[in-house]
Amino acid sequence: MLTLFQYNWQVREDWFSWCEGISEEELLKQRVGGPGSLLYTLFHIVDVEYSWLVGLQGKEEPEEPPFEHYATLQKVKQLSHEYHMEVVRPFVKAWTDDMEAQTLSETNANGETISFRHGEVMRHVIAHEIHHVGQLSVWAREIGKPPITANLINRGLFDKQ
Amino acid sequence: MLTLFQYNWQVREDWFSWCEGISEEELLKQRVGGPGSLLYTLFHIVDVEYSWLVGLQGKEEPEEPPFEHYATLQKVKQLSHEYHMEVVRPFVKAWTDDMEAQTLSETNANGETISFRHGEVMRHVIAHEIHHVGQLSVWAREIGKPPITANLINRGLFDKQ
C-alpha cells in the first residue's frame, strides 16, 4: 500500500515543480473534463486524500476548505505539505494489513448509512490521484508542455528493498 | 494487489460499453495528450498489461501487435478478453506477497541491463491503466458524454471480504 502512496506523493511534487513554469492564468483557467483548473485539480487531490484519511482515523471528515483561500501554487503546496506531515504520511506509514477489513461508516446525502472497508478507502484514494493526474497530462499537452511521466518504474521506489 | 487489478478490469469493461455509444470516427480520431485515439488508448492499456505479465512469467515480452489489425471496438475487446483469460487473470490470481521481490531483468535500447522488482512492475501496470483512463475521461467530456466513474468505492470489490 505504502509504495503506491509514495508514487503519488512523488508524482505530485513533480507536478508542483512543473507548475512553476506555468502562468497563474493557465493554472487557474477552467478546463474541460476534470474538476476544474489545473490548480484546483491539485487542491482537490490534496483535500480528498486528507479527508478520507481523517475519516479512517475515526474523526469527522472535514468539509473542503474554500479554494479561494488557496488559489496560488504556493498555498496549495503548503496545504499539501501540512496535511502530509500532520495526517497523511503518519497514517500511511503506520498502515498494516490487519487494518484492511476495518469498517468506516458514513451517512450519505439521503440519510442512509454506507460502509466501506478501510482497505477499500485506501485504494480509492490511490486511484483517485492517479486518475486526476491523467487529466492533468492531457491539459499539459493542450498548453504545449510535456507532462510529468506517469511511470512508476524508474523512480527508485524499490531501491531499498 | 488483486483488488486494484479487478478495479481496472471493471472500469475497462465499463469503458468498452461506453464506447458502444460512440461513432467509429470519434473512437479513431487522434486526440491531444494521450497515446492517440480513444480506441488506441484502450488497445495500448490491453497490450501493456499483457506484455509486462508475460515478462514476469519469464518469457520474452511480445512486441505490440499492429493496431491496424485491431482497429475496431469488437477486436480490441476480443483481444482484451483473450489476454485476460490466457495470461493476465491467472497470473494476478496466483500472485502472492513472496513474489514481490523477484527480479525482472531486461536490456534497454542502449544495450544496458535494467532490473525491476516484480512488485514494482505489478504496480506500474496498475498505475498505467488508471492514468490512461484519466485521459479518456477528459476526451469523453470533449465529445460531450459523461465519462465512466473512476470511483473505486461502491463497485462491490470488497463485498466478499
Descriptive notes:
Chains A, B: Belongs to the DinB family. Chains A, B: One of its GO terms (molecular function) is metal ion binding. The structure is a homodimer of 161-residue chains. By secondary structure, chain A is mainly alpha-helical. Chain A has one domain: Up-down Bundle (Four Helix Bundle (Hemerythrin (Met), subunit A)). Chain A contains five helices and two strands; from the N terminus they run ααααββα. The first copy, chain A, has a two-stranded antiparallel ribbon. In chain A, a hairpin with a 5-residue loop joins strand 1 and strand 2. In chain A, helix 3 runs parallel beside helix 4. Chain A starts with a helix and ends in an 18-residue tail after the last helix. The model of chain A has no long low-confidence stretch (mean pLDDT 96). Chains A and B meet through helix 1 and helix 5 of A and helix 1 and helix 5 of B.
Structure characteristics:
homodimer; 161 residues; mainly alpha; Four Helix Bundle (Hemerythrin (Met), subunit A); two-stranded antiparallel ribbon; 5 helices; 55% helix; 6% strand
Low-confidence stretches of chain A: none
Structural class of chain A: mainly alpha
Give the strand line-up of the largest sheet of chain A.
Answer: 1-2
The proportion of residues forming helix of chain A, as a percent range, comes to 55-70%
The N- and C-terminal alpha carbons of chain A lie at a distance of 15 Å
Q: Total strand count of chain A, please?
A: 2
Count every helix of chain A, treating DSSP H or I runs of 4 or more residues as helices: 5
Shape of chain A: globular
Radius of gyration of chain A: 16 Å
In total, the number of domains of chain A comes to 1
Q: Strand fraction band of chain A?
A: 5-15%
The assigned CATH architecture of chain A is Up-down Bundle
Family (chains A, B): Belongs to the DinB family.
Protein name (chains A, B): Putative damage-inducible protein DinB
InterPro entries (chains A, B): DinB, DinB/YfiT-like
Keywords (chains A, B): Metal-binding
